[in-house]
């Protein structure tokens, strides 16, 4: 089997003639944390949407664990073990943290989501749900409605609902966006913890998060791959520095 859990070749996406992503090759190594970075408008989100099949590529091929997934739906990709955090937007504000994770577990097992009469069914998931809440540091919030959780805790709950789907490849879309510094530290620690036994691909703007977490970084600019390597090598790359300096982004 290949060392790569995810392989994309020649990935392209045009919007009415404008190429947002053009000829991107991306190989994500099994067990790694791989970050996709780049200045505003570089094509990171489009690339992410292509990989998770929220967008259909205009050209290119994507394989997950050696199987071609280019034609699959987002749900089909998720069922195979490649899950995007927040994909299922499973955080229902009026439900408690525990109830949210139980619903995610029920869905992961192909439950018909009929939770209106499902209390007896859902109760079977209590132990596993409590263990997942513990994994993300939310055991003390099990009974708290999601709406009452702080922003950082809500993101942790979203990660717990994603973990409920038992992803082998977890895709995180700007996991620290909009967070206070203290919450950023907590999410970084959480990502370090949950990486065991799985691969993580993330889009992230916060470069200190990227430098501390990523084994490998792909830098996009104007829809193309500008550089790839570890943090030390991409941050010393002249083309990368120029691309970042040309925007209002923080320095690399
Ligand atoms: N649905 C769409 N229709 C038209 N243009 C689009 C669409 N989605 C993205 N684009 C354009 O494609 C380019 C890449 O956008 P994308 O959102 O992928 O970049 P990004 O790297 O995620 O940027 P940011 O860091 O600002 O979120 C941008 O110029 C954007 O305006």
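Q: What amino acid sequence fits the structure above?
A:
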């Amino acid at each position: 089997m290949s060392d790569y859990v995810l392989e994309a070749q020649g990935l392209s996406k045009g919007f009415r003639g404008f190429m947002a992503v053009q000829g991107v090759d991306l190989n994500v190594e099994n067990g790694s944390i791989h970050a996709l970075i780049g200045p505003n408008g570089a094509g990171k989100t489009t690339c992410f949407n292509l990989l998770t099949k929220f967008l259909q590529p205009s050209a290119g091929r994507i394989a997950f664990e050696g199987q071609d997934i280019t034609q699959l739906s987002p749900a089909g990709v998720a069922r195979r073990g490649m899950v995007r955090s927040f994909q299922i937007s499973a955080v229902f504000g009026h439900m408690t943290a525990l109830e949210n994770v139980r619903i995610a577990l029920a869905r992961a097992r192909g439950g018909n989501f009929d939770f209106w009469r499902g209390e007896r069914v859902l109760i079977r998931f209590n132990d596993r749900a409590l263990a997942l809440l513990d994994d993300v540091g939310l055991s003390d919030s099990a009974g708290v409605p999601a709406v009452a959780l702080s922003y950082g805790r809500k993101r942790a709950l979203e990660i717990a609902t994603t973990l409920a789907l038992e992803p082998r490849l977890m895709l995180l879309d700007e996991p620290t966006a909009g967070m206070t510094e203290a919450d950023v530290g907590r999410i970084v620690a959480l990502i370090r913890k949950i990486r065991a036994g799985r691969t993580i691909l993330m889009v992230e703007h916060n470069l200190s998060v990227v430098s501390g977490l990523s084994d490998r970084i792909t830098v996009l600019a104007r829809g193309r791959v500008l550089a790839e390597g570890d943090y030390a090598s991409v941050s010393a790359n002249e083309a990368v520095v120029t691309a970042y300096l040309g925007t209002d982004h923080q320095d690399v």
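Q: And what stands out in the fold?
A: Residues 15, 18, 20, 38, 40-46 surround adenosine-5'-triphosphate (CB under 6 Å).
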